[in-house]
Amino acid sequence: MIMIRAIVRPERTTKILLELSKAGFPAVTKMDVVGRGKQRGISVGEIVYDEIPKDLLMLVVQDEEKDDVFSIVSRYAKTGEKGAFGDGKIFVSPVEEAYTISSGTKNL
């Protein structure tokens, strides 16, 4: 199993979640987060906004499903044909174990 964490623009989240659900990935955790990337925030005149609102989407899928999820998230998170600074980032990590709290059963 792997965990996919995607940091995306909030205005893209609804479409990403809809497309993930249509593709058979309805189980997603969403959190509102703030941060900045390599661009170090946004400058408007002399004011610098270095805490940009984003959404963090997390889901755990089987290894062989990674490419499908990656494709959906990257397609619907990208702005314009080429994308733009601030479109987000996708992180992929191995998941060694997972358990259902209510039953204590191990999920494979």
3D architecture notes:
The mean pLDDT is 91. The chain has one domain (2-107): Alpha-Beta Plaits (2-Layer Sandwich). The chain has helices spanning 10-22, 66-77, and strands at residues 2-8, 29-35, 42-44, 47-49, 52-61, 88-94, 98-99, 106-107. The strands form three sheets. A four-stranded antiparallel beta sheet has the order 2-5-1-6. A two-stranded antiparallel ribbon has the order 3-4. It has a two-stranded antiparallel sheet with strand order 7-8. The termini are close together. With 108 residues, the protein is of the alpha+beta class. A hairpin with a 2-residue loop joins strand 3 and strand 4.
Largest sheet: 4 strands, antiparallel
Helix/strand order: EHEEEEHEEE
Indicate the overall shape. Answer: elongated
CATH class annotation? Alpha Beta
Secondary-structure-based class equals alpha+beta
- The helix content is 10-25%
By DSSP, the count of extended strands is 8
Q: Mind telling me which CATH architecture this is?
A: 2-Layer Sandwich
Short description:
This protein has 108 residues and is of the alpha+beta class. It contains two helices and eight strands; from the N terminus they run E-H-E-E-E-E-H-E-E-E.
Overview features:
108 residues, four-stranded antiparallel sheet, alpha+beta, 23% helix, Alpha-Beta Plaits, 38% strand
